[in-house]
Amino acid sequence: MMTGGVVLAVALALLLCGASEAWTGEIRGRVVCDVCGDSSVGPEDLVLQGHFFLSGAEVAVLCITKSGEVLNYQAFTNSKGIYKVAETMPESDRWVSCLARPVSSFHERCTRRGDAHSGIKFSYNRPSGHSHTVKPFLYKPASTPFYCS
Fold it and tell me: Taking Cα atoms as reference points, which of 100, 97, 59 lies closest to residue 77?
Protein backbone atom coordinates (compact mmCIF):
# COMPACT_ATOMS: atom_id res chain seq x y z
CA MET A 1 0.00 0.00 0.00
CA MET A 2 1.24 3.52 -0.86
CA THR A 3 1.51 6.28 1.68
CA GLY A 4 -0.20 9.65 1.13
CA GLY A 5 3.13 11.34 0.28
CA VAL A 6 4.00 8.74 -2.36
CA VAL A 7 0.53 8.98 -3.96
CA LEU A 8 0.84 12.76 -4.09
CA ALA A 9 4.33 12.54 -5.64
CA VAL A 10 3.15 10.05 -8.31
CA ALA A 11 0.08 12.19 -9.11
CA LEU A 12 2.22 15.33 -9.38
CA ALA A 13 4.76 13.56 -11.63
CA LEU A 14 1.97 12.36 -13.95
CA LEU A 15 0.46 15.84 -14.06
CA LEU A 16 3.79 17.50 -14.87
CA CYS A 17 4.68 14.95 -17.56
CA GLY A 18 1.34 15.50 -19.30
CA ALA A 19 1.63 19.29 -19.07
CA SER A 20 5.05 19.34 -20.74
CA GLU A 21 3.53 17.91 -23.94
CA ALA A 22 0.86 20.59 -24.30
CA TRP A 23 1.55 23.72 -26.34
CA THR A 24 -0.54 26.90 -26.51
CA GLY A 25 -0.29 29.45 -29.29
CA GLU A 26 -2.03 32.78 -29.82
CA ILE A 27 -2.31 35.07 -32.82
CA ARG A 28 -3.58 38.61 -32.37
CA GLY A 29 -3.93 41.68 -34.48
CA ARG A 30 -5.97 44.80 -35.07
CA VAL A 31 -8.29 46.14 -37.77
CA VAL A 32 -8.44 49.92 -38.21
CA CYS A 33 -10.05 52.54 -40.41
CA ASP A 34 -7.53 54.44 -42.53
CA VAL A 35 -9.81 57.44 -43.12
CA CYS A 36 -7.49 59.24 -45.53
CA GLY A 37 -6.61 56.07 -47.43
CA ASP A 38 -2.90 56.87 -47.33
CA SER A 39 -1.87 53.46 -45.91
CA SER A 40 -0.66 55.07 -42.72
CA VAL A 41 -2.34 55.55 -39.39
CA GLY A 42 -2.30 59.08 -38.02
CA PRO A 43 -4.34 61.56 -35.97
CA GLU A 44 -6.53 62.39 -39.00
CA ASP A 45 -7.89 58.84 -38.87
CA LEU A 46 -9.47 59.49 -35.47
CA VAL A 47 -11.89 62.04 -36.95
CA LEU A 48 -14.37 59.45 -38.27
CA GLN A 49 -16.57 59.80 -35.19
CA GLY A 50 -13.95 58.04 -33.09
CA HIS A 51 -14.25 54.87 -35.17
CA PHE A 52 -10.54 54.40 -35.74
CA PHE A 53 -10.67 50.83 -34.41
CA LEU A 54 -13.15 48.70 -36.31
CA SER A 55 -15.42 46.67 -34.08
CA GLY A 56 -16.96 43.49 -35.52
CA ALA A 57 -14.54 43.14 -38.45
CA GLU A 58 -14.01 39.54 -39.54
CA VAL A 59 -10.54 38.00 -39.88
CA ALA A 60 -9.63 34.49 -41.07
CA VAL A 61 -6.51 32.73 -39.85
CA LEU A 62 -5.21 29.58 -41.53
CA CYS A 63 -2.40 27.60 -39.86
CA ILE A 64 -0.40 24.52 -40.85
CA THR A 65 0.78 22.24 -38.05
CA LYS A 66 3.97 20.19 -37.73
CA SER A 67 1.97 17.11 -38.74
CA GLY A 68 0.73 18.87 -41.92
CA GLU A 69 -2.83 19.45 -40.75
CA VAL A 70 -4.48 22.66 -41.94
CA LEU A 71 -6.51 24.50 -39.28
CA ASN A 72 -8.90 27.30 -40.18
CA TYR A 73 -9.99 29.89 -37.59
CA GLN A 74 -12.49 32.74 -37.75
CA ALA A 75 -12.27 35.76 -35.46
CA PHE A 76 -14.13 39.04 -34.99
CA THR A 77 -12.67 42.23 -33.57
CA ASN A 78 -13.75 43.64 -30.23
CA SER A 79 -14.58 47.31 -29.52
CA LYS A 80 -10.87 48.18 -29.70
CA GLY A 81 -10.45 46.53 -33.11
CA ILE A 82 -8.50 43.59 -31.69
CA TYR A 83 -8.96 39.97 -32.77
CA LYS A 84 -7.41 36.90 -31.14
CA VAL A 85 -7.11 33.24 -32.08
CA ALA A 86 -5.70 30.78 -29.55
CA GLU A 87 -5.45 27.03 -29.22
CA THR A 88 -3.83 24.45 -26.97
CA MET A 89 -2.61 21.30 -28.69
CA PRO A 90 0.12 18.67 -28.39
CA GLU A 91 3.63 20.04 -28.95
CA SER A 92 4.00 17.58 -31.85
CA ASP A 93 1.06 19.26 -33.65
CA ARG A 94 1.90 22.91 -32.97
CA TRP A 95 1.54 25.60 -35.63
CA VAL A 96 4.45 25.95 -38.06
CA SER A 97 3.19 28.72 -40.33
CA CYS A 98 0.03 30.77 -40.60
CA LEU A 99 -1.79 33.17 -42.89
CA ALA A 100 -4.02 35.92 -41.48
CA ARG A 101 -6.33 37.81 -43.81
CA PRO A 102 -9.17 40.29 -43.41
CA VAL A 103 -12.56 39.05 -44.59
CA SER A 104 -14.96 41.95 -44.07
CA SER A 105 -15.73 45.12 -42.18
CA PHE A 106 -19.27 45.85 -41.05
CA HIS A 107 -18.61 49.50 -40.26
CA GLU A 108 -21.18 51.74 -41.98
CA ARG A 109 -18.57 54.02 -43.60
CA CYS A 110 -15.28 52.11 -43.58
CA THR A 111 -15.78 48.97 -45.69
CA ARG A 112 -13.18 49.03 -48.49
CA ARG A 113 -9.89 47.19 -48.08
CA GLY A 114 -7.22 49.82 -47.59
CA ASP A 115 -4.03 47.85 -48.06
CA ALA A 116 -2.84 45.93 -51.09
CA HIS A 117 -2.11 42.71 -49.21
CA SER A 118 -4.71 39.97 -49.33
CA GLY A 119 -3.16 38.45 -46.23
CA ILE A 120 -0.05 38.20 -44.12
CA LYS A 121 1.88 34.93 -44.06
CA PHE A 122 4.28 34.24 -41.19
CA SER A 123 6.21 31.46 -39.50
CA TYR A 124 5.01 30.64 -36.01
CA ASN A 125 8.04 29.94 -33.86
CA ARG A 126 6.90 31.29 -30.51
CA PRO A 127 7.24 29.18 -27.37
CA SER A 128 4.11 27.92 -25.66
CA GLY A 129 2.08 30.67 -24.01
CA HIS A 130 3.48 33.50 -26.17
CA SER A 131 1.55 35.33 -28.86
CA HIS A 132 2.39 36.50 -32.37
CA THR A 133 1.12 39.97 -33.30
CA VAL A 134 0.13 40.58 -36.92
CA LYS A 135 0.45 44.11 -38.36
CA PRO A 136 -2.90 45.96 -38.56
CA PHE A 137 -5.29 45.41 -41.44
CA LEU A 138 -6.59 48.65 -42.96
CA TYR A 139 -10.01 49.53 -44.31
CA LYS A 140 -10.96 52.89 -45.80
CA PRO A 141 -14.18 54.80 -46.52
CA ALA A 142 -15.77 54.80 -49.99
CA SER A 143 -14.95 58.50 -50.32
CA THR A 144 -12.01 60.35 -48.82
CA PRO A 145 -12.88 63.35 -46.61
CA PHE A 146 -11.88 66.81 -47.91
CA TYR A 147 -9.38 67.42 -45.07
CA CYS A 148 -7.18 64.53 -46.32
CA SER A 149 -6.14 66.32 -49.53
Answer: 59
